[in-house]
Amino acid sequence: MISKKINIAVIGLGQVGSYLLNELNNKKKDIELKTGKKIKIVAISAKNKNKKRKFKINKSIFFKNPLDIIKYKNIDVLFEVIGQSDGISKKIVETALKNKIHVITPNKALISKHGDYLSKLAEKNKVNLEFEASVAGGIPILRTIKEGLATNKLFRVYGILNGTCNYILSEMEKSKDSFKNVLKKAQYLGYAEPGNPKLDLNGYDAFAKIRILSSLAFNKKISKKKCLMEGIENLEYKDIEIASQLNFRIKLLGITEIINGKLFERVHPTLVKKDSYIGNVNGVMNAVIVEGKPIGESVLQGEGAGPGATSSALMSDLLSILRGNIKYPFGIPDIKRKKSLPYNEKISSNSLYLRLEVKDKPGVLSEITKLLANNKISIERVIQIPDHKKKTASIIIITHRAIESRSQNLINSLNKNKNIIKKLVQIRLF
């Protein structure tokens, strides 16, 4: 049972950590009113004590080595807001749990990689490991699955899980600007990492979140199998424009589902109908759709990124702990969580959008259609857009549903064709 006075430590004072610290200081009375507990920040730690921040650091509670906090301070709740999957982040969380300290973290990389081990550790020491903020920021999707939908049999969870990618795709459509220019704008606005936004753009961020969602939704251990993961780096405004003409929008979707009793996880750009719910989620917004029985379809939408949304989820976890809710991190006892059998993605099927930049000369289209026929992939629609000045053409092909292994064989063959002058763009239909 937690005492009336709660000692809190915050490790990491980046954008999120700084925002959180401010919220903790400003909302002490509100927290006390809602939980009956008084909180006190007794320790903070960051890489650089002297870094310029919008607030003054209380040097009397600053620790250069975050592990010293656990050693020398009586801590009830620790916030880990560093964000590494290994190294000091893992060591801090591991040490805190072993010392019977509740841990709250938005660290999706850590949870998706070490969540099983850390969950077991929390359970053994009868403390909470909370990570609501690791998926979809301000949307309470994890708590919804763990508690609100706990008695439902879920079979699919999907949605827009990365606000950076969603902003870029939405803004490209709105402004008719290039991927490169919109990315720069996203970085300027703080929606994308100013240095290296690769983990957002290549799909890894969304995939880490999908793994967490899978584990919660299907009561499984976190999947370790390398699955389908594609990002948006190769998309151009041309793809946005063509998709629009075909009554589609492009969204980076994370999808996890159970097919024939096996787990199928994937992240990739997807063509969705303009009039669909998911097709109208724009900007930095996230949306998650949960399908199951008896609930049917449940939709949650909200800001998925930024210090405000993340801090909101972190504070929600804090209030849950202060109310005395000692819970299994993944909703059920660790011993009940089984390893998932992975679905063979090579036998999955999708319709495809293919854009090929080719030399504009006789026989090229027939070569391409022959390759499709050889792989037993039928064509639903073909669009050819010539560029007479450059003597090139864009060929857009929409296929009927095709088995993934055949699609990949086709793409490998197309990328080797000397008449195709640029790596092709592939987008799946949903």
Summarize this structure briefly.
This protein is an alpha/beta fold. The chain has helices at 15-26, 28-35, 66-72, 87-98, 108-124, 141-148, 163-175, 179-189, 198-201, 204-218, 237-245, 307-322, 364-374, 404-416, and strands spanning 5-11, 38-45, 77-80, 102-104, 129-130, 153-160, 228-229, 248-259, 262-273, 285-293, 296-303, 349-350, 352-359, 379-387, 392-399, 402-403, 425-429. The protein has 14 helices and 17 strands.
Provide an overview of this structure.
The chain is an alpha/beta fold. It starts with a strand and ends with a strand. It has helices at residues 15-26, 28-35, 66-72, 87-98, 108-124, 141-148, 163-175, 179-189, 198-201, 204-218, 237-245, 307-322, 364-374, 404-416; strands spanning 5-11, 38-45, 77-80, 102-104, 129-130, 153-160, 228-229, 248-259, 262-273, 285-293, 296-303, 349-350, 352-359, 379-387, 392-399, 402-403, 425-429. Strands 6, 7, 8, 9, 10, 11, 13, 14, 15 and 17 form a 10-stranded mixed β-sheet that branches. A 5-stranded parallel β-sheet has the order 2-1-3-4-5, sandwiched between helices. Strand 10 and strand 11 form a beta hairpin. The protein folds into 3 domains: 5-134, NAD(P)-binding Rossmann-like Domain (Rossmann fold), CATH 3.40.50; 141-303 and 333-345, Dihydrodipicolinate Reductase, domain 2 (2-Layer Sandwich), CATH 3.30.360; 346-429, Alpha-Beta Plaits (2-Layer Sandwich), CATH 3.30.70.260. Helix content is 36%, strand content 25%. The relative contact order is 0.12.
Strand content: 25-35%
Total strands: 17
CATH class of the largest domain: Alpha Beta
Number of helices: 14
Instruction: Give the overall shape, derived from the CA principal axes.
Output: elongated
Q: Which regions have little confidence, pLDDT < 50, spanning 5+ residues?
A: none
C-alpha-based Rg, rounded: 24 Å
Share in helix: 25-40%
Query: What's the rounded overall pLDDT mean?
Result: 92
User: How far is it from the N-terminal to the C-terminal residue, by CA?
Assistant: 48 Å
CATH topology-level name of the largest domain? Dihydrodipicolinate Reductase, domain 2
> What summary fits the major beta sheet?
10 strands, mixed
Structural class of the helix and strand makeup?
A: alpha/beta
From the coordinates shown, what is the CATH architecture of the largest domain? 2-Layer Sandwich
The CATH homologous superfamily of the largest domain is named: Dihydrodipicolinate Reductase, domain 2
Number of domains: 3
